[in-house]
Specification:
The structure holds 2 protein chains of 2 kinds. In chain A, 76% of the residues lie in helices and 0% in strands. By secondary structure, chain A is mainly α. Chain A has one domain (18-200, 231-348). Chain B has a 4-stranded mixed β-sheet with strand order 2-1-3-4. In chain B, helix 1 (12-28) packs across helix 3 (69-78). Chain B has helices at 12-28, 40-45, 69-78; strands spanning 2-7, 32-37, 53-56, 59-63. Chain B has one domain (2-78): Glutaredoxin. Chain B is globular, with a radius of gyration of 11 Å. The chains are: A mainly alpha, B alpha+beta. Chain A binds chain B through residues 1-3, 5-6, 9-10, 84, 87-89, 92, 115, 117, 119-120, 122-124, 126-128, 130, 195, 199, 202-207, 209, 211, 215, 218-219, 222, 320-321, and chain B through 8-9, 11, 13-14, 27-30, 40-41, 43-51, 60-68, 70-71, 73-74, 77.
């Protein structure tokens, strides 16, 4: 009775290759027609003028919304699929027993490809420490994992091109590695809660669970759908503001506040970024518009990195395992690293 | 009586997994108690680093993802 009930309860599935072919084709069609479609709607259907403030703002909005949604749907699915092969459990096995430098670099690199959920930060921390992984190595992972996330990379790649996205990733890696090494050197083990140390050596490695391609694709698609649903309101607001900036903001104003002539621009954007954690996606279109108006590259990178790397909700969660002194050091090291990256790129790209 | 443990601090993902577990128990037609493990120490003690996690009768069935009610029901019936 139970087997029959189970098969009746499941929906009929289309064969996987067919489903994939249809999805990819639909995506490509959407991608190719949306730019000409946006132009046609703004300038032919609505009869707005090329180069007018309203015309440019509307065209920006109509162009960006489908483009960003398509990018998210397509690339987040693929990236999540790839990331499914890298679990924190596997990373932990890879890090055990490694030398300090090799471990830090490995941890930071794995952090980039491993999916990160704030609610997992604590078990992850406990698990790493319990396995004997040095504190600095664990922090390298904790820095790179949230900072280099798939939403940021997708949008950066789609809106600014592959080089900016790779640059962002490289900077995130460097900040994570150097930050991890510094924190490791400071000998702050006493600021980790005692119970975490007490657990060392008590747990064996968890078991490895194999997933089928259908499960992996299903997971990736469900994750993407949820993500897109959650961030669409922020995205629309962000693109709306970006469109207004693109159409209406005078370039001189952007240059005056955020430009190279203002030495406080970099710390300013870092400060603005701190409360913006959950709105990472929504802020990228704004950044895109500002960049178009002359916001320097370093300032842009600093802003993007700060949004996810310096997150108050995550710090509060981490309080379960580390004391405020260590959290403060963590936040400071990351902030200084981001500030250096910001200033460095502003100087280099001029 | 089967024992299903849902491991996680209580975020949206954990709640969804718990809902799937309830649905799975109904689908599979078995008697099971569903326990929520929210203490971080206990979660880590099982060797699970990415929540939510699912343990059925002491065997880790899933971590870091939300298996569907169908998947869970299958684990319940295959024993």
């Amino acid at each position: 009775m139970t087997t029959l009930a189970l098969t009746r309860g499941r929906r009929p599935h289309l064969p996987l290759p067919l489903l994939l072919a249809v999805a990819v084709t639909a995506w490509l069609i959407g991608w190719l027609i949306e730019a000409p479609l946006a132009g046609w709607i703004s300038f032919d259907l609505l009869r707005l003028e090329h180069g007018s403030q309203l015309g440019e703002a509307v065209a920006f909005f109509l162009l960006d919304v489908p483009k960003v949604l398509l990018l998210l749907l397509g690339i987040v699915t693929v990236v999540t699929l790839i990331r499914g092969f890298f679990s924190p459990e596997r990373v932990r096995s890879a890090l055990v027993g490694r030398g300090l430098l090799a471990g830090t670099v490995t941890a930071a690199s794995f952090g980039v490809v491993t999916p990160f959920c704030s609610c997992s930060a604590v078990p992850l921390f406990i698990g790493f420490v319990e396995a004997g992984i040095p504190l600095g190595v664990t922090f390298a992972f904790l820095i790179s994992s949230p900072m280099v996330n798939e939403v940021a990379l997708v949008l950066l790649w789609g809106l600014f091109g592959p080089w900016i996205a790779l640059l962002y990733m490289a900077c995130g890696l460097v900040v994570a590695i150097v930050g991890g090494l510094i924190i490791g050197r400071l000998g702050l083990e006493r600021y980790v809660e005692d119970y975490v140390w007490a657990m060392q050596g008590t747990v064996g490695p968890g078991i490895e669970i194999k997933l089928t391609p259908e499960q992996r694709l299903g997971d990736a698609w469900r994750y993407t759908k949820d993500l897109v649903r959650k961030i669409t309101p922020y995205l629309l607001i962000g693109i709306g503001i970006g469109a207004l900036i693109h159409g209406y903001a005078p370039t001189e104003l952007v240059a005056a506040i955020g430009g190279r002539s203002n030495p406080l621009a970099v710390p300013l954007v870092v400060l603005i970024a701190i409360p913006l954690y959950s709105n990472a996606a929504g802020t990228i279109p704004i950044v895109q518009a500002l960049l178009g108006k002359g916001l320097p590259l370093g300032t842009t990178l600093a802003f993007m990195m700060s949004i996810t790397a310096i997150s108050l909700p995550e710090f509060i969660i981490l309080r379960r395992v580390i004391r405020w002194q260590l959290i403060a050091v963590f936040a400071t090291v990351v902030t200084i690293g981001i500030l250096i990256v910001g200033y460095m790129f502003n100087v280099l790209v001029s | 009586m089967r024992k299903i443990e849902v491991l996680g601090p209580g975020c949206a993902n954990c709640k969804r997994l718990e809902a799937n577990a309830h649905e799975a128990v109904a689908m599979a037609g078995v008697e099971a108690e569903i326990v929520k493990v929210t203490d971080y120490r206990e979660i880590a003690a099982h060797g699970i680093l990415s929540t939510p996690g699912l343990i059925i009768d002491g065997v880790i069935r899933s971590y870091g993802r939300i298996p569907s009610a169908g998947d869970i029901a299958l684990w319940l019936t295959e024993g």
